[in-house]
Amino acid sequence: MRISALQTGTVAVKEAQREGRGSGPARIVNVLRGKQWTEPLPIHVWVIEHPEGVIVVDTGETARVMEPGWFPRWNPYFRNAVRFSVRPDQEIGPQLEHIGVSPQRVRWVVITHMHTDHAGGLPAFPQAEILVTQAELDASSGVSGRINGYLPQHRPDWFAPRVVEWDSEPWGPFPASMPLTSAGDVRLVPTPGHTPGHMSVVVQEAEGPLIFFAGDTSYTQELMRRGAVDGVSADPAAAAETLRRIHDLCAAGDVVYLPTHDPESARRLASRSPVPRS
Ligand SMILES: [Zn+2]
Question: What pTM, to 2 d.p., does this model score?
Answer without folding.
Answer: 0.97
